[in-house]
Each structure stands twice: as structure tokens, then as C-alpha cells.
Specification:
The protein has helices spanning about 10-25, 30-85, 90-155, and strands at about 1-5, 5-10. By secondary structure, it is mainly α. The chain has a two-stranded antiparallel ribbon with strand order 1-2. α1 (about 10-25) packs across α3 (about 90-155) and α2 (about 30-85) runs antiparallel to α3. About 0% of the residues are buried.
Length: about 160
């Protein structure tokens, strides 16, 4: 027994009134099981995207360190060679340009990989977002019918 406004009422009657009210307002006709399933799939997609991003970030950081080490080694060798045996200015410029070109090619490779990995992560998240919107559309199509059924059952 439930007590409302100082009077005792039957909990079943109060429950039916609540069900009838929910049936009149289809916006409250939730399918919690479907919603929870959708949220589980959202979290799984986020975990997958995070895993992809983490692997990519680790690879980029490792590759960046390798490129930096190689560039520093190349420029140190060039500087040491320049001090040991001074040569024609054009030769030194050409060697410096080759070192710079090698470093810039590595940076371009890093940028390409970062772009590709970002596209993979966004593709995964966009796919899940599309699925979520499809689920919402499907649910929205069914919700008024479910609400009408609840309203008829409550009468």
C-alpha cells in the first residue's frame, strides 16, 4: 500500500496511472535494454579507437626519435667533415642539402602516417556514430507504436 496526500492507495493502481501517463507521452517510452546495448557498443568503439590511436602515437614517437637521431648524426658527421677537410663551398652546401632533404622526407613520412592513422580512428568513430543514429531512427519509428500499445493496455 502506498500513501499519497494522506490517503492510502493501492500500489498497483498508482503503477497503472504511471504507466498510462507514460503511454500518453511517447517521449518517455524508453527501451532501456536497447539503450544499454547501444552504450556498450559505444564504449567498445571508443576502446578500439583509443587502442588504434595509442598504437599509432607510440609508432610516431618511436619513428620521430629515430629520425631525430639520424638527422643529428648526419649533421654532426657533416660538421665534422667540414672541419677536418675544408672543401669547395658548393660541395658542403650540396651535402648539407642532402642531409636536410633526408630529414624532411622523414618528416613527410611521419605526417603521412599521422594522417592515415587519424583517418582510421575517425572512420571507426564515424561508423559507430552512424550505427547509433540508425539505432535511434529505428527506435524512433517504433516508439509511437509502442506508446500507443501501452496506452491501450493501460485502459
Amino acid at each position: 500500500m502506498a500513501k499519497t496526500n494522506g490517503t492510502v492507495t493501492d500500489a498497483g493502481a498508482a503503477g497503472n496511472a504511471f504507466a498510462k501517463m507514460m503511454g500518453e507521452w511517447p517521449m518517455f517510452a524508453f527501451n532501456y535494454e536497447a539503450m544499454m546495448d547501444s552504450q556498450r557498443r559505444n564504449w567498445a568503439a571508443l576502446v578500439e579507437a583509443n587502442k588504434l590511436w595509442n598504437e599509432s602515437a607510440q609508432m610516431l614517437a618511436t619513428r620521430h626519435m629515430e629520425l631525430t637521431r639520424q638527422a643529428m648524426q648526419d649533421f654532426a658527421e657533416l660538421f665534422e667533415e667540414t672541419l677536418r677537410k675544408p672543401g669547395a663551398f658548393e660541395d658542403q652546401i650540396g651535402k648539407g642539402a642532402a642531409c636536410t632533404r633526408h630529414a624532411l622526407e622523414g618528416i613527410c613520412d611521419l605526417a603521412d602516417h599521422a594522417t592515415k592513422s587519424s583517418a582510421e580512428v575517425m572512420k571507426l568513430l564515424n561508423k559507430r556514430m552512424s550505427e547509433t543514429l540508425d539505432d535511434a531512427r529505428t527506435y524512433a519509428k517504433r516508439a509511437p507504436n509502442a506508446a500507443a500499445t501501452h496506452a491501450v493496455a493501460a485502459d
